[in-house]
Write a structure and sequence with these properties.
Blueprint: H1 14-24, H2 28-35, H3 39-46, H4 54-64, H5 68-72, H6 76-87, H7 99-108, H8 110-135, H9 147-157, H10 163-179, H11 182-188, E1 192-196, H12 198-201, E2 206-209, E3 214-218, H13 223-237, H14 240-247, H15 255-274, H16 277-286, H17 291-298, H18 302-309, E4 323-328, E5 333-337, E6 367-372, E7 378-389, E8 397-407, E9 425-426
Parallel strand pairs: 1-3, 6-9
Antiparallel strand pairs: 2-3, 4-5, 4-8, 6-7, 7-8
Helix pairs in contact: 2-3, 6-7, 6-8, 9-15, 10-11, 10-15, 13-15, 14-15, 17-18
Amino acid sequence: MKPGASSPKPLYLGPRIKRLRRELGLTQSAMAEELGISASYIALLERNQRPLTADLLLRLARAYKLDMADLAADERDDYARRLADVLRDPIFAEIDLPPLEIADVATSFPGVTEAMLRLHGAYVREQQALAGLRADGGSSEAQGVDPVGEARRFVAQRRNYFPTLDSKAEQLAGEIEQAGGPREWLRKQGLRVRALPPEVMMGSIRRYDRHNEQLLLDDTLPPSSRAWQMAMHIAYTALRPEIAAIIRGESFASATAATLVRRALAAYAAAALVMPYDRFARAVDARAYDIEALAGQFGTSFEQVAHRLTTLNRPGQERVPFFFIRVDAAGNVSKRLDGAGFPFAAHGGGCPLWNLHAAFRAPDEILTQWLELSDGQRFFSIARSVVAGGGGHDRPRTMRAIALACAAEHAPRLVYARGQEPRPTPIGVTCRLCNRAECTARAEPPLGREILPDDYRRAAEPFSFAES
């Protein structure tokens, strides 16, 4: 080394290595074995108690097919900058926080730094949500601070139809069929598919082992779920450019919203691979929207077919427009695809008279119902319970209910409505927006209506309203 030359700065990448390991679904022992070092050394690296050597950097890049330049980028300065930004928040105004101390914390205690950044991020989001509630009279979603709502709006604005994904998926589906199925197609791409016990999968049902070029699946998954997980992997890899092109240029309020949109697009692409548009649309017509029959024909689940039915919006080849919703037993909405003009409440509970909620009392039974809103709009609904998880004696199972609803005018095209005389059940969007005075299932009075006193008379309904 020349006199006066500074020695190379040690490279500490603890948080990045830990994040990489978790993304790969590896234990410290598994990563250590693949890199030819000890598990305790991995632990020291992740805690920034050992610098990353050039040799180990090269091993990481080779083992997991990573760009060495990206991997070697030092995060310490970025961590220190982000932590300094957080600590400028007025809430910390009276605390003396010298820049050198902040840099020392970011370098020496990356775990504490990450925890601080997450905690402050959660605090800021809650403050924004609270401000949104006050400004909008209760709707934080309208202020764009709700990532789930933002992702739903992204899909809804495009009518849940992404032609580039359908087109590319249709082409790939033909190649996959010609190869003998997704497993064989992946094998020809140099990727081996293996089914492993849950204890080996460490809580994952699908994991891509980039080091050994393997797609690992939980061996308790039923055949339809295995096929779906292979399709998801193909969507995330072979259709990555198409997904990226759809998102490119979009500005999301948070990283979570962007992740949810990307996940939604991958699921869309997977459905398009398993149920290619043209072939699926023809089958839908032939089977009159019989969801169970379609699931059997395409080797999918009831929910996957129901979800795919909401995407048949190709101009000139549209099918029945549906509204899709999935709820748990407590009424929490975990998936909603807006369509068919069904005005489901964005906030607050849905109507208990909709038999979507009765699906939990009749597992696996398809329930149908004609619905009429207070403004006279009529819809036809199909509801059924679905189960996720399980696969073993001690594996948790989650039951949810899903429903598809279409405008009453489209109902005759559905096998479920044939021979039925429309006898609609009066329902509301939500109690606060429903003015039906005679409803005994009402939980709250509607907005803008005066409640009559019941000192001397108590009606069967929870509330009695003044006429005006």
